[in-house]
């Protein structure tokens, strides 16, 4: 049986669920925000260990699970009747720790291991591994030292970008996504904003086009991403645009680069990776980052690639190990 650990709003998970249903493969989907208000779970230590989970729709003994797709779970939802903030925090921590302990207890194949995902999300670590594997990365400084950042800016002849280290999102009353953006000299005068927020600063790459590489097991899918001619805005980060503002084309990666990217995914302990590259005007491939749980459903639609099928095939292969 296959377990999907995710959340209700994840459309990408819906694609895999449809593929599982189409093939009559037994699965259970756990939306972690349902716990503990709508879902119930018990771990029973008797002669045998029982890991029981009741979703709103199904009861299952998790000991039967052979493969897990760990797909963007979110924090448990604490009932609104609990008003005291300290008590709410305690309940949240207990619920979160219960789920983690439950997942750690599953002796099965993971896409991907949750600790490997957490570690791989750290850009300092992934850039270090990418460089060790011989991938080209932009000239980079990761710092909260205003003087060093300004010196780096001048070394880049003023062609420098900034990007967040971990979470590109501010969850406020009005949630705001943070994309890669160019830095100007006036920005560097805001020294406190540099000092209080360590960030990634890189030499801006003059790109011919971007590439999104999706790796599932050892299957590699690469798509060129071009900002279409109808979009007059000068764009550094294509992710801020709508799909209709982008043109996609299949790209044949050099075999040496393809092998390095597969090695990167494996070195990070992952079974899946969404990798952002760029090709310069000179034809050089530049590695930007890897998202160990990145989006791919739009590529299945745009490129007509069988990505959900490949995810399910991978989970089945793991089931048979």
From TrEMBL:
One of its GO terms (molecular function) is ribosomal S6-glutamic acid ligase activity. GO terms for biological process: SOS response. Coiled coil: none annotated. It comes from the Bacteria. InterPro entries: ATP-grasp (IPR011761), MvdD-like_ATPgrasp (IPR048936). PROSITE patterns: ATP_GRASP. Pfam families: ATPgraspMvdD (PF21068). One of its GO terms (cellular component) is cytoplasm. This is Glutathione synthase/RimK-type ligase, ATP-grasp superfamily. It comes from Orenia metallireducens.
């Amino acid at each position: 049986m296959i377990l999907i650990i995710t959340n209700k709003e994840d459309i990408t998970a819906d694609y895999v669920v449809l593929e599982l249903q189409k093939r009559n493969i037994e699965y259970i989907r756990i939306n972690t925000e349902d716990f503990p208000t709508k879902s119930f779970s018990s771990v029973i230590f008797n002669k045998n260990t029982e890991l029981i989970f009741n979703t709103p729709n199904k009861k299952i003994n998790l000991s039967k699970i052979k493969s897990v797709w760990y797909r963007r779970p979110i924090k448990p939802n604490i009932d609104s009747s609990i008003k005291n903030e300290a008590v709410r925090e305690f309940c949240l921590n207990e619920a979160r720790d219960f789920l983690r302990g439950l997942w750690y207890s599953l002796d099965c194949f993971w896409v991907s291991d949750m600790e490997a995902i957490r570690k791989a999300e750290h850009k300092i670590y992934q850039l270090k591994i990418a460089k060790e594997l011989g991938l080209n990365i932009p000239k980079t400084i990761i710092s909260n030292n205003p003087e060093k950042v300004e010196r780096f800016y001048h070394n880049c002849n003023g062609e420098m970008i900034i990007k967040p280290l971990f979470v590109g999102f501010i969850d406020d009353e009005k949630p705001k996504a943070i994309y890669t953006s160019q830095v100007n000299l006036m920005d560097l005068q805001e020294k406190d904003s540099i000092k209080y927020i360590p960030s990634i600063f890189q030499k801006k790459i003059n790109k011919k086009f971007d590439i999104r590489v999706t790796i599932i097991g050892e299957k590699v899918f690469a798509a060129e991403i071009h900002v279409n001619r109808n979009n007059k805005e000068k764009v550094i980060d294509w992710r801020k645009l709508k799909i209709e503002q982008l043109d996609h084309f299949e790209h044949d990666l050099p075999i040496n680069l393809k092998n390095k990217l597969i090695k990167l995914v494996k070195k990070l302990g992952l079974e899946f990776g969404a990798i952002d590259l760029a090709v310069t005007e000179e034809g050089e491939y530049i590695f930007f980052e890897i998202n160990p749980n990145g989006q791919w459903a739009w590529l299945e639609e745009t490129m007509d690639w069988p990505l959900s099928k490949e995810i399910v095939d991978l989970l089945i292969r793991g089931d048979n190990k």
